[in-house]
Amino acid sequence: MPQIEIRPARSEDREAVLAFSSHTWDWGDYIEYVWDEWLHDPQGMLFVATSDGQPVGVASQRIQLPFVSWNRNSCARSPHTYLCTHRRS
Fold first, then answer.
1. What is the dihedral of CA 34, 83, 51, 46, to 10 degrees?
2. Domain with 54 in it: what CATH number?
């Protein structure tokens, strides 16, 4: 199984993330509309999971209160997982 690494997202990850997340639902996904907001949110954290240097997963957290965060989105490209969770915030 490939090694998975998790790191903060970067602007250049956008296209790779949109490529795999666009197949999450029949209609696509809303990540393309919130990517920049999430990437630059001073109270948020946007992460990508990578395999062989390529993004294969994304997760967004937002700090609500000290020691409390909200998972806004988690999604990964197959075959790494078939699970995607989404919350609009």
1. 30
2. 3.40.630.30
pLDDT tens figures, 34-82: 999 999 999 999 999 888 888 988 888 888 877 777 677 666 665 544 3
Whole-number Å distance between alpha carbons of 42 and 80: 29
Q: Could you give the number of structural domains in the chain?
A: 1
- The structure's pTM equals 0.74
Give CA–CA dist 28/89, Å, rounded.
18
Q: Which two tokens stand for residue 55?
A: 């993004």
Q: What is the DSSP string of 29-86?
A: -SHHHHHHHHHT-TTEEEEEEEETTEEEEEEEEEEEETTEEEEEEEEE-TTT-S-EEE
Range of the domain at 35: 4-86
